[in-house]
Amino acid sequence: QVHLVESGGGSVQAGGSLKLSCVASGSTYCMGWFRHTPGHEREGLAFIWTGTTSTTYTDSVKGRFTISQDNGKNTVYLQMNSLKPEDTAMYYCAASSHICGSWYPGNYPYWGQGTQVTVSS
Fold first, then answer.
1. Helix, strand, coil percentages for the chain (3-state, nearest 5)
2. How does pLDDT run across 99-109, given as a tens digit for each residue?
3. Cα angle vertex 12, ends 7, 15, to 5°?
4. C-alpha distances in angstroms, 71 versus 52, 74, 97, 115?
């Protein structure tokens, strides 16, 4: 069983930066980040194969966001730079025991409760 707790959300001005954290209990093969706003589909942002340097990013955040993990491999981060108002969303940490790099939310059985990110102009 995997339990995820994310934190680090808040309010920031456009062009600013924010760093999200996700602490995992239990063993994971993959960890990553999604975001969701009302009336829109949940959007996969970035994923990292646990214990590796392999990552993948969606086009909307590539070059601005960076996913990483700590040496103990139980915490994953999302460094968000050059934030835009359209980045405003609820951000969720997700994990899988078998699959990684999929943009489909249903491929990730484990989810955090979400942390709100608000970017003002």
1. 5, 50, 45
2. 999 999 999 99
3. 120
4. 11, 8, 19, 24
CA angle 103, 108, 114 (to 5 degrees): 90
Can you spell out the DSSP letters for 5-60? EEE--EEEETT--EEEEEEEES--SEEEEEEE-TTS--EEEEEEETTSS-EEE-TT
Map tokens 């078998």 to a residue.
98
Q: Which two tokens stand for residue 39?
A: 């009336």
In degrees and rounded to multiples of 5, residue 85 shows phi and psi of: -55, -35
Residue whose structure tokens are 């990730």: 108
What are the tens digits of pLDDT across the range 22-49? 999 999 999 999 999 998 999 999 999 9
Rounded Cα–Cα distance for residues 68 and 66 (Å): 7
Return the bridge partners of 57, or none.
46
102 three-state secondary structure: coil
Nearest to 83 by CA among 104, 106, 61: 61
